[in-house]
Write a structure and sequence with these properties.
520 residues, mainly beta, Immunoglobulin-like, 5 domains, eight-stranded mixed sheet, 2 helices, rod-shaped
């Protein structure tokens, strides 16, 4: 045994002598015999197939394959035997269950017992009599064998069930990935307490290893080139004695593509509409070959989605409440590998007005009670409500006579010379802005009959002394001094009848002085 080991074990023994005050530890008799082996366990209770004397403590507990012999079931202790020397490595520990496998725990770590050759860890059973410990001639032991250095193999080797592990791999972002984007590989190992490392692979090429912390290891890179990438991961535990290596069940594949073509989108909408009126929102997407859909929104509310056809998307909307809306549009490409999504740079203001107010119109005519041809007539239209603005069309039997603007709530059309016949007058109100007022028409036509004008007739000159029942003689006109033209008139109830005759080819009237003389 080397000088270092002797000094270490001697120091431990001296400390234990003080701790065992009054307990005598006699040497083992020549008839001492091994009755079983030990399983050396770490602080987690796991069996150790090997120990490292340079890592303190090397092991924590020794568990025997059976109970202490009858008569020696008061206490146990551990000893390390190096060659012919025996050194106590723990204090006496009271046995609480005499039939259970004997155990002993190190209470003073062995600082360093590395040496070439063989060491023995021995669990001794004691019978305490009047404070004196009597050691059984039977004991449990295991052998530590070193080929040099501080690593020792435990004999017999314990039976250790290696626990399987699993590893899952996630890749972000999802495929397809734009070239130059940061791709993150995240591996998750079962049981977060397991330590080790994960090696990441792209196809058969190692990307590197990362330590596992809390059951997770990650790797990221922006250097992946165009094309397919098949990622896998392999977990290697720090304690392969207890945990198995594992590999992802299947590769995770992504496609790295060229950066897609950028797009722009602009939205158009009417400035104002009335409640309940259908309106069309339009979005123009560039380039025009980009296919996909456009979602129109007003603030946080979605108005609807429409397909893009030839670079244009149209959405018909109705039912918006009165108010102001800031309309935006978002383009979602059907093929994100080729085209990027885009959103309008600014909103378009849409004002929804209340429903237009109803209107009414009344029509009156001013003029003679019985108008005749040539009389002056005035048509007056009155529109309600009084604040309505616009024009009035005046119609006669459906034909527009003229259009007159409202003054206040009244419009007037003057007909300077009435035309013979019956006229069916109507009036139609046309609002200046249909968003605020509805149009209206007179409910029924206004009928006006225009009579013919009276005929003007010359007043006849009566012959003095003639009775009112006799024919009235009319003197020849001054233009007819020779008496070749004469008028004969008869007064009948105020109506004058005139007769004239043509004289042969000369055109003289038949009436002549000779006839008048004959009648006399």
């Amino acid at each position: 045994m080397n000088t270092r080991l002797r000094g270490t074990l001697a120091a431990v023994a001296a400390a234990l002598v003080v701790a065992l005050a009054g307990v005598v530890v006699p040497a083992l008799p020549a008839s001492a015999a091994t009755i079983g082996t030990l399983e050396l366990r770490d602080a987690g209770g796991r069996p150790m197939p090997s120990i490292d004397a340079a890592q303190l403590p090397s092991f924590t507990t020794a568990v025997a394959t059976g109970a202490c012999p009858v008569g020696f079931r008061d206490a146990t202790r551990l000893a390390i035997v190096a060659g012919a020397s025996t050194f106590v490595a723990s204090s006496n520990q009271t046995i609480t269950d005499a039939t259970a496998p004997a155990t002993a725990t190190l209470d003073t770590p062995v600082a360093d017992y590395s040496t070439a050759g063989t060491l023995t860890v021995r669990l001794q059973c004691l019978d305490i009599q009047n404070g004196i410990g009597v050691v059984s001639t039977s004991y449990y032991e295991s052998t530590l064998t070193s080929s040099g250095g501080s690593r020792y193999a435990v004999t017999p080797a314990p039976t250790i069930v290696v626990e399987a592990t699993t590893i899952a791999l996630a890749v972000s972002p999802a495929s397809p990935v734009v070239v130059g984007a940061n791709v993150v590989l995240t591996a998750t190992v079962t049981r977060a307490a397991i330590t080790g490392s994960v090696e990441f692979f792209d196809g058969g090429v190692s990307l590197g290893s990362e330590p596992v912390s809390g059951g997770v290891a990650s790797f990221d890179s922006t250097a992946f080139g165009l094309g397919l990438h098949s990622f896998t991961a392999v977990f290697t535990p720090n304690e392969p004695v207890y945990y198995a290596q594992s590999t992802t069940a299947a590769p995770t594949v992504i496609t790295v593509v060229e950066r897609p073509t950028s797009t722009t989108i602009a939205v158009a909408a009417p400035a104002t509409v009335n409640v309940g009126t259908d309106s069309v929102l339009t979005a123009n997407v560039a380039p025009t070959m980009a296919g996909g859909s456009v979602t129109f929104s007003a603030g946080a509310a979605t108005l609807g989605t429409a397909p893009v056809v030839g670079g244009v998307a149209r959405l018909s909307i109705a039912g918006l409440a009165a108010g102001e809306y800031d309309v935006t549009a978002t383009f979602t490409p059907s093929n994100p590998i080729l085209f990027e999504a885009s959103t309008t740079a600014s909103a378009r203001r849409l004002v929804v007005l209340p429903a237009p107010a109803a209107s009414s119109i009344a029509l009156t005519v001013a003029g003679p009670s019985t108008p005749r041809v040539g009389d002056r007539l005035a048509l007056t239209a009155t529109v309600a409500p009084a604040d309505a603005t616009g024009t009035v069309e005046f119609l006669d039997d459906g034909v527009v006579l003229d259009t007159v603007g409202l003054s206040g709530s009244v419009a007037e059309l003057v007909i300077p010379s009435a035309v013979l016949g019956t006229h069916s007058y109507t009036a139609r109100f046309v609002p200046a802005d249909a968003r605020f007022f509805e149009g209206s028409t007179t409910p029924a036509p206004l009928l006006v009959t225009v009579a013919a004008a009276p005929v003007a007739v010359p007043t006849p000159t009566a012959t003095p002394g003639a009775s009112t029942g006799a024919p009235a003689r009319v003197a020849p006109a001054a233009a007819d001094p020779d008496g070749s033209l004469a008028f004969t008139g008869f007064a009948m109830g105020g109506l004058v009848l005139l007769a004239a005759g043509l004289l042969g080819g000369g055109g003289a009237l038949v009436a002549s002085r000779r006839r008048r003389a004959a009648q006399d």
